[in-house]
TrEMBL record:
Keyword line: Oxidoreductase, Thiamine biosynthesis
Gene3D superfamilies according to UniProt: D-Amino Acid Oxidase, subunit A, domain 2 (3.30.9.10), FAD/NAD(P)-binding domain (3.50.50.60)
Organism: Asanoa iriomotensis
Pathway, per record: Cofactor biosynthesis; thiamine diphosphate biosynthesis
PANTHER family assigned: GLYCINE OXIDASE (PTHR13847:SF289), SARCOSINE DEHYDROGENASE-RELATED (PTHR13847)
Chain segments annotated as transmembrane: none
Protein name, entry field: glycine oxidase
NCBIfam families (UniProt xref): thiamin_ThiO
A Pfam family matched in the record: DAO
UniProt EC number: 1.4.3.19
Catalytic function, reaction form: glycine + O2 + H2O = glyoxylate + H2O2 + NH4(+)
Every FAD dependent oxidoreductase domain range: 3-348
Length: 368
């Protein structure tokens, strides 16, 4: 009996690859693998600067996942996925006015609790790290261990490696979860055919709460609009996040001459519109932070949906429906949490239990 993975984004493919490496037969079903949040993601691997106040458990999971990244990438390369580079220049968080500076001071105190390296920098120290920063920047934090990766390159590598270890990828729309005698036993496809398998791993990202036949899940789409730009080599060495008089923006270099600028956070359901206002605001703030962004070519605008949950944390492991396993709800941290999620679900599928680090993220007590 094959394991069925519903969803071929980063999470679904990584689960499938890790499970297949451990000897399981795995089928991934996705009409267009990697076309959801994996396509829009900026690729920040940022346990510190993506953590909100009160999210210590999520930050611990994020650290576990980041620690796994080097071995995960080495094994991906060994399985034919090619080399995907981690960008390890760290993350600068900068501010412009007195309120931004006060916010950075509060964040500094909060980040220090984590034990991860964080340093308060003057404006000139920040500009020594990133000479392209605006002279208007008033000060910064440097989070040395917040890294990044190109999510599209990672998805392509996972696709290659998963295929190489025998994962079968079915390109079809999933119509419903098949439930037999109170147990998930397969997936019905849009054409009417049925794939039988067990368990079924739900890795549908923002769509996880919409699968007919599945129990109601507390997963909702949270729209993000994002921009991709191309231009001079080496404009930035690492991620720059900014508070621009209270507004948040981030700039992530994902190749020598490429930059992602993001992102909006909008509760608009599955609205896919790229709006003039959002593009304007993102570019205005990005140019305020790094004036040379104005010279770059705007090559892509995109809107996709983060799989949001009420507590911003993923849902990992058994679901209320026997035979259905959850690997969803990664909200703003899908790329970061990919290795820890894949290993946790592969453990569950092979030895029948989640590792300790995943235990706080089960569905227990978190269902609607
Ligand atoms: N992790 C960045 C975002 O969700 O916009």
């Amino acid at each position: 009996m094959s394991v069925l993975v519903a969803g071929g984004g980063l999470i679904g493919l990584a689960v499938a690859w890790r499970a297949a490496r451990r000897g399981l037969s795995v089928i991934v079903v996705d009409e267009d693998p990697g076309s959801g949040a994996s396509r829009a993601a900026a690729g920040m691997l940022a346990p510190l600067t993506e953590a909100a106040y009160g999210e210590e458990a999520l930050r611990a999971l994020s650290r576990t996942s980041l620690d796994r990244y080097p071995a995960f990438l080495a094994e991906l390369a060994a399985d034919g996925g090619g080399t995907v580079a981690l960008r390890t220049a760290g993350t600068l968080e900068v501010g412009f006015d007195a309120d931004d500076m006060a916010a950075l001071d509060r964040l500094h105190t909060y980040y220090l609790e984590s034990g991860l390296p964080v340093e308060r920098l003057t404006a000139s120290q920040a500009r020594r790290r990133e000479p392209a920063l605006s002279p208007r920047v008033r000060g910064a934090l440097h989070a040395a261990s917040d890294h990044s990766i190109d999510p599209r390159a990672l998805h392509a590598a996972l696709f290659e490696a998963a295929s190489a270890v025998g994962v079968h990828i079915v390109r079809s729309r999933i119509a419903e979860l098949v439930v037999t005698d109170g147990r998930a036993t397969g997936l019905r496809l849009a054409g009417g055919s049925e794939l039988t398998g067990s368990p079924v791993v739900l890795a549908l990202g923002a769509w996880s709460g919409t699968l007919p036949g599945a129990p109601p899940l507390p997963v909702r789409p949270v729209k993000g609009q994002i921009l991709r730009l191309r231009g001079d080599e080496g404009l930035l060495t690492g991620t720059v996040r900014a508070l621009v008089r209270g507004r948040s923006v981030y700039l992530v270099p994902y190749a020598a001459d490429r930059l992602v600028v993001g992102a909006t956070t909008e509760e608009l359901g599955f609205d896919a519109t790229v709006t003039a206002g959002a593009v304007h605001d993102l570019l205005r703030d990005a140019i305020e932070v790094v004036p040379d962004v104005a010279e770059l070519e705007l090559v892509e605008t995109l809107a996709r949906w983060r799989p949001g949950t009420p507590d911003n944390a993923p849902l990992l492991g058994p679901s209320p429906l026997p035979g259905l396993v959850l690997a969803t709800g990664h909200y703003r941290n899908g790329v970061l949490l990919t290795p820890a999620t894949a290993d946790a679900i592969a453990d569950l599928l092979t030895v029948g239990a989640l590792p300790d680090y995943a235990a706080p993220f089960t569905a227990d007590g978190r269902m609607p």
